[in-house]
Specification:
With about 280 residues, the chain is mainly alpha-helical. Helix content is about 75%, strand content about 0%.
């Protein structure tokens, strides 16, 4: 393969990974009915998720897995097997515990970094989805490049396509949920806030990873053959359904938060730069 062909293939992979993420962001963005965020405002959070949160998450996860593996080898007790990244227990601990907590925290830091640009509660999930979709785009691109290196362009595109309807949406939805909780705290709305919604995001991430790993979980019990294939497809379909329901819930939260001033009867929550719609006249009895 010559250099020109390799560059062209890489550009194709970037486009295939980027277009779905941007399309999802446009879908979420349209949910904010009152004074929606301009694209230029969302590019920063998207880039933060793609090029900061993804890279730092990968580094931290590699460090923790390395430290855990060394510790489990230094203390070879059965109860510490889950720390060994080379073991089955260690792999599940990574995808069900370490990755959700680290990645959701780093994506959440993107929402915090752009907190000054939040104009109202509805902006929280929009900014969160932007950070998460940026994370999902770049992570998916990296996986696609890995598949390309092993199986060629078709393999890279196929993996990106699968992750684009699953993992990318998961990251957008989970960080959108966190963004909603962060905005609730920032604008002093009653009820659960940042910490509670962070744990919800972590739970969503872990649940998705469990569904996506259903075949591997089934294999632990010694089941093989057709059942593994069936578990693979069931897990994939369930994971895709889960993330589409999750992102739709985020869109509903944005729509419900678009007019917080009316819902709460307080101008304190009125988004900046907009005109509050006139309230319906009160009919005297």
């Amino acid at each position: 393969m010559n250099v020109v062909t390799a560059i062209l293939d890489f550009v194709i992979l970037v486009v295939v990974a980027l277009v779905p993420a941007v399309g999802y962001l446009a879908w979420v963005k349209r949910s904010e009915r009152f004074s929606p965020e301009p694209w230029r405002t969302l590019l920063g959070p998207f880039a933060y998720g793609a090029f900061f949160a993804t890279v730092i998450a990968g580094i931290l996860e590699a460090i923790l897995v390395g430290v855990g593996t060394a510790a489990s080898q230094a203390i070879p007790a059965p109860e510490f097997t889950f720390l060994n990244g080379n073991s089955t227990a260690g792999e599940f601990f990574l995808i069900l515990v370490i990755a959700p907590f680290i990645e959701e925290a780093l994506k959440g830091s993107g929402v915090y970094a752009y907190r000054a640009q939040l104009r109202g509660p509805a902006d929280g999930p929009v900014f969160g989805a932007s950070v998460g979709l940026g994370f999902g785009f770049f992570e998916t691109l990296l996986y696609g490049v890995g598949a390309f290196a092993v199986g060629g362009l078709v393999a890279g595109i196929a993996l990106i396509a699968i992750r684009s309807v699953s993992s990318v949406l998961l990251h957008g939805a989970s960080t959108g949920i966190f963004g909603y909780g962060f905005a609730r705290s920032r604008f002093h709305l009653p009820g659960p806030g940042t910490g509670s919604y962070y744990l919800v995001a972590v739970g969503m991430h872990a649940a998705f990873n469990a569904l996506a790993s259903l075949a591997a979980i089934v294999a632990i019990f010694g089941i093989t053959g057709v059942t593994i294939t069936l578990a693979t497809w069931i897990g994939l379909v369930a994971a895709i359904a889960f993330v589409f329901l999750a992102i739709e819930h985020v869109r509903e939260l944005i729509q419900a938060s678009s007019y917080p001033a009316i819902a709460l009867g307080s101008a304190r929550y009125q988004p900046k730069g907009g005109t509050r719609p006139a309230a319906a006249p009160v009919r005297k009895k």
